[in-house]
Amino acid sequence: xxxxxxxxxxxxxxxxxxxxxxxxxxxxxxxxxxxxxxxxxxxxxxxxxxxxxxxxxxxxxxxxxxxxxxxxxxxxxxxxxxxxxxxxxxxxxxxxxxxxxxxxxxxxxxxxxxxxxxxxxxxxxxxxxxxxxxxxxxxxxxxxxxxxxxxxxxxxxxxxxxxxxxxxxxxxxxxxxxxxxxxxxxxxxxxxxxxxxxxxxxxxxxxxxxxxxxxxxxxxxxxxxxxxxxxxxxxxxxxxxxxxxxxxxxxxxxxxxxxxxxxxxxxxxxxxxxxxxx
Length: 278
Prior knowledge:
This protein is of the alpha/beta class. The chain contains 11 helices and 12 strands. It folds into 2 domains: about 170 residues, 3-Layer(aba) Sandwich (D-Maltodextrin-Binding Protein, domain 2); about 100 residues, 3-Layer(aba) Sandwich (D-Maltodextrin-Binding Protein, domain 2), CATH 3.40.190.
C-alpha cells in the first residue's frame, strides 16, 4: 500500500508539472496570443492570418508539440491580445503561449514564465525629419508619446529622472495611436522599440520623413511568455534551441528583418549562446 501511494503521488506531481501539455493533448488545441500591430514580429497579414518573426517561432513550437504529444492534428487557435493584457492572458490561462515583443524583466517573470531569448532590441524615439533630436538630452521640454504598461515607458521615465529632463510623456495604447499623434504634430516624438518603429513607418512614407534618436535608452531582450509549467517550458525551449543550433533562425530572421541588415553582434551572440544541445 505504501508503494502504491508513493507511485500515485509521483503521478500526481508529474501531472501538475504537465498541466498545459495535458490540456493541449486532451483538446487538440494550442492557444497562442499575439499582438496585431507589432510588425515585423507579430501582425495581421493581408490574408487575415497572424504573421511575423515571433509568429514563425510559435508555429514551430506548435508543430513540435504536436509531434511530442503524438497527435494526428493540432489546431492553433490565435488569440489577439494587447500590450496591456498579454501577461494577464498568460497568467489566467486564456492563452498557452504569448508571441510578440514582450521584454524579459524580473517583475514579469514573477507573474509568468519565460522562454529563451528570441530577439534583442533597444528603446528609441521616432521624430519627424528635421527635428533636432539626436540624443536623449534633446527631448528636454518635448512631448513624447509612449505605450502604457511597457518596459519602454518605465525605463524612459527612469532615464528622464536620472538626467533631470522636463519631458512630458503622453500615454497611448497602441503604436498606430502614437504614430498618429506624431504625424498630427500633437507630440514631438514617439518612444518604442527601435525595430518596430522602423517597421511602423517603412512602408508608408519617404525615407526622409522620419528620424530616430542616434542612441538607444534601453536594452530589450524579447521572450515568449507562458504559464508556469516546467515540461511545457522545456518543450518550448527545445524548439528555440534547435532553431538556433541548426541555423534555421537565419531564414526566419531574413524573412522578416533582412531588409534592416544582418543580425547585430549582440543578437548573433544571443543565438549562439542559446543553441543548447540535447
